[in-house]
UniProtKB/TrEMBL annotation:
<feature type="region of interest" description="Disordered">
    <location>
        <begin position="102"/>
        <end position="134"/>
    </location>
</feature>
<dbReference type="InterPro" id="IPR001279">
    <property type="entry name" value="Metallo-B-lactamas"/>
</dbReference>
<feature type="domain" description="Metallo-beta-lactamase">
    <location>
        <begin position="42"/>
        <end position="218"/>
    </location>
</feature>
<dbReference type="InterPro" id="IPR050662">
    <property type="entry name" value="Sec-metab_biosynth-thioest"/>
</dbReference>
<dbReference type="Pfam" id="PF00753">
    <property type="entry name" value="Lactamase_B"/>
</dbReference>
<feature type="compositionally biased region" description="Basic and acidic residues">
    <location>
        <begin position="116"/>
        <end position="134"/>
    </location>
</feature>
<protein>
    <submittedName>
        <fullName>MBL fold metallo-hydrolase</fullName>
    </submittedName>
</protein>
<dbReference type="InterPro" id="IPR036866">
    <property type="entry name" value="RibonucZ/Hydroxyglut_hydro"/>
</dbReference>
<dbReference type="Pfam" id="PF17778">
    <property type="entry name" value="WHD_BLACT"/>
</dbReference>
<dbReference type="InterPro" id="IPR036388">
    <property type="entry name" value="WH-like_DNA-bd_sf"/>
</dbReference>
<dbReference type="InterPro" id="IPR041516">
    <property type="entry name" value="LACTB2_WH"/>
</dbReference>
């Protein structure tokens, strides 16, 4: 299969909620029962190592999922908790796991937006962000944290959120990529929380690395990770081309672009699609390709520069 072939999304993920599964030696996963159009079958938490272990992404505020995770490591010591990013389907359960285990929490930092909010943007407190999360240890790109039989390197992957990190295990060529790369669907990039400019840079950063088996925040593992990343880059560039194709016909707004580009979309995802288009438009405006009156916002109208 050549690099130019489309890489199909894989929606085959039979894992049942609450069951611990060893997906590779030294890597176990437990699915949370929080399915939705945004989370697929639910959030996947990972257990790294044996005996003295790390947990990656404890998941949403969900007592049953915390119990399943703790059950999976019964008789073992949880020494580290890692959080890829601060959306409510990934970080709120951290407090429960920390309280039960005494483990220290490692993450990039508290939640923050990718850019300041524009005056004309309404603040939506229900944006899905976990604003209560604060790690014990703040880590940055290139920082390495070692445990008993494992070694994880922080890889800065902003874009889906400003504080998104992936955790690479270079010796095993594994990468725990959170929501930056998912095998079942594209990631949502919704300004001001997310940034398409950052997202594309982060894809390039992953593509340049050696790890080729990705463990994602939702859905199945992704073999041949770098090739999948190159597919995502092509997919985003095709999306940008579709936006420019529509704008070439004249000035328009985001809902019109969504109707033209996302044919047959699940109606529940229309708003998210609009924000994804906005993320592309922010990038295009920053590059001087597209223009708008005032700030690039969801309610704006756009035209070729």
């Amino acid at each position: 299969m050549s690099d130019n072939d489309d890489v199909p999304f894989n929606r085959n993920f039979p894992l049942k909620a609450g069951i611990v599964e060893e997906v590779r030696p030294g890597v176990r996963r437990v699915l949370c029962n929080n399915p939705s159009p945004f989370t697929f079958t639910g959030t996947v938490s990972y257990i790294v190592g044996r005996g003295n272990v790390a947990i990656i992404d404890p998941g949403p505020d969900d007592e049953a999922h915390a119990a399943a995770l703790l059950d999976a490591v019964r008789g073992e010591t949880v020494s580290h908790i890692f959080v890829t990013h601060t959306h409510r389907d990934h970080s709120p359960n951290t407090a429960r796991i920390k309280q039960a285990t005494g483990a220290r929490v490692y993450a990039e930092g508290p939640h923050r937006a990718s850019r300041p909010r524009f005056e004309s943007e309404k603040h939506n407190p229900e944006s899905g962000s976990d604003r209560d999360f604060v790690p014990d240890v703040r880590i940055a790109h290139g920082d390495v944290v070692e445990g008993d039989g494992w070694r994880l390197e922080a890889v800065a992957t902003p874009g889906h959120t400003a504080n998104h990190l992936a955790f690479a295990w270079p010796e095993r060529k594994f990468n725990f990529v959170g929501d930056h790369v998912m095998g079942w669907s594209t990631s949502i990039v919704a300004p001001p929380d997310g940034s398409m400019i950052d997202y594309m840079d982060s894809l390039d950063r992953l593509a340049a690395r050696e790890e080729d088996l990705y463990f994602s925040g939702h859905g199945p593992e992704i073999p041949d990770g770098q090739r999948f990343v190159r597919f995502l880059i092509r997919h985003r560039k095709a999306r940008e081309a579709s936006i420019l194709h529509r704008l070439a016909k004249g000035e328009t707004d985001i809902p019109t672009m969504v109707r033209a580009i996302y044919i047959g979309i699940d109606p529940r995802l229309t708003t998210a699609a609009g924000y994804s288009v906005l993320a592309h438009l922010e990038d295009l405006v920053a590059r001087g390709v597209v223009t708008t009156d005032g700030d690039p916002v969801i309610g704006g109208t756009y035209r070729m520069a």
